[in-house]
């Protein structure tokens, strides 16, 4: 991920490679599910 696609106000503590998402849930390439709680911050 680059600074062109990620806001500089959001820091990445542990890089995650996402494979897909649905609603507020996203999955990484290992199948682990996360809740996306920052997706609407800039909206």
TrEMBL record:
Q: This chain belongs to which protein, by name?
A: Aspartate aminotransferase family protein
Q: Name one GO molecular function term.
A: transaminase activity
Q: Which UniProt keywords apply?
A: Aminotransferase, Transferase
Please indicate which superkingdom the organism of origin belongs to. Bacteria
Answer whether the UniProt record assigns the keyword Hydrolase to this protein: no
């Amino acid at each position: 991920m680059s600074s062109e696609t990620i806001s500089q106000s959001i820091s990445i503590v542990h890089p995650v490679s996402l494979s897909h998402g649905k609603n507020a849930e996203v999955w990484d390439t290992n199948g682990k599910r996360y809740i996306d709680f920052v997706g609407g911050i800039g909206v």
